[in-house]
Amino acid sequence: MYTDFYNKHQFERIEIHVVNHCNLNCFGCAHFSNICKPYEIEIKEFEKNVSIVTEKVNYKLLNILGGEPLLHPNIDILCDKARKICPNIIITLTTNGILLPQMKEKFWQSLKRNNIQIRLSIYPYTMKKGRKLIDLIHKNEVKIWDIWDGRKFYLRKTKYFHNNAEKTWKNCDAKICHQIYKGKLYICPISAYGNFYNNYFNKNFYFDDGIDIYKNSSEQIYNFLNKSSPNCATCTNNGRVINWKLSTFNEEEWDA
Ligand code: SF4
Ligand code: SF4
User: Fold this and answer.
1) C-alpha dihedral over 199, 46, 1, 116, to 10 degrees?
2) Does residue 15's CB lie within 6 angstroms of at least one atom of ligand 1?
3) Ligand 1 nearest atom to the CA of residue 123, by list position
4) Which amino acid residue places its CA nearest to atom 1 of ligand 2?
5) How far apart are alpha carbons 2 and 145 in whole angstroms?
6) Is the CB of 25 under 6 A from ligand 1?
7) Range of 162's domain?
8) What is the rounded CA–CA span in Å between residue 83 and residue 87?
9) The domain that contains 156 carries what CATH number?
């Protein structure tokens, strides 16, 4: 299935939610995981999504996340499947670390044998345990890809649409965080999961702006991913940086 076009065009990162929900409740969560309905991906659906997206689009890295991915009861099996489908790309798993001390041996073995690296997000909630979590990962001989300092959050949502979607998209660092969700590919988490916000607050603010991964060619998908989404008109590049805190489920906490 490798074509010249595929080989010539590479993107940084594809991400896949294995669950939408989370065991933390952060103010302004960029994946809307604190206001979504619980969802966990079925193993077959995971396999289908990862297979088709990596067959059609050339990515350097696959990131498994959520929500909190350790809430998926078969996370070890999903890690095995991911490596089997993608033998040659970097695979990482983003976690807030809360559940790491409870994870069973089969989880650690799966990360180790599949060379899946952990991206650890440390929030003030887990800051005191941070060192212990890092030691635990090392003890299980799993590599750490990076550690994200979650003390600050960046809010980028505007209240109203503006006319500079293209310019905002060009200057946006989230545009490389492509999402594969239920057979559609999205340029960023806001485009993929903005519907959770719409549903929770009963709004029509975000568009479900994804491309059907099955019906479109590599070239069509590449062109789609290389331009702004209507959702970019809801973002600003001059957002608000806030200190991490718990969400109170207020619509305005997403506003920059
Ligand atoms: S830990 Fe991450 S996914 Fe969970 S609520 Fe916080 S920002 Fe969202
Ligand atoms: S909608 Fe556009 S501007 Fe907003 S986060 Fe996504 S890519 Fe960036």
Assistant:
1) 110
2) no
3) 1
4) 232
5) 28
6) yes
7) 4-254
8) 5
9) 3.20.20
pLDDT category at 37 given cuts 50, 70, 90 is very high
How would residue 197 be classed by pLDDT, with cut points 50, 70 and 90?
very high
Total domains in the chain come to 1
Q: Which atom of ligand 1 is nearest to the CA of 32?
A: 8
* pLDDT digits 0-9 by tens, 67-107: 999 999 999 999 999 999 999 999 999 999 999 999 999 99
> Taking the C-alpha atoms of 137, 142, 148 and 149 in order, what is their torsion angle to the nearest 10 degrees?
20
Place of tokens 């088709």: 52
Mutate-to-test residue for ligand 1 from 20, 21, 22, highest number of ligand atoms within 8 A of CB: 22
Number of Cβ within a 10 Å radius of residue 2: 9
Among all ligands shown, which has an atom nearest to the Cα of 174? 2
Residue 17 makes CB contacts below 8 A (sequence gap 6+) with 31, 39, 41, 65, 66, 67, 179, 181, 192, 193
Max CA-CA distance within the chain? 52
- And the tokens for 94? 């983003």
Ligand nearest 33 Cα, by number? Answer: 1
pLDDT the model gives residue 6 = 79
Residue 8 has pLDDT above 90, yes or no: no
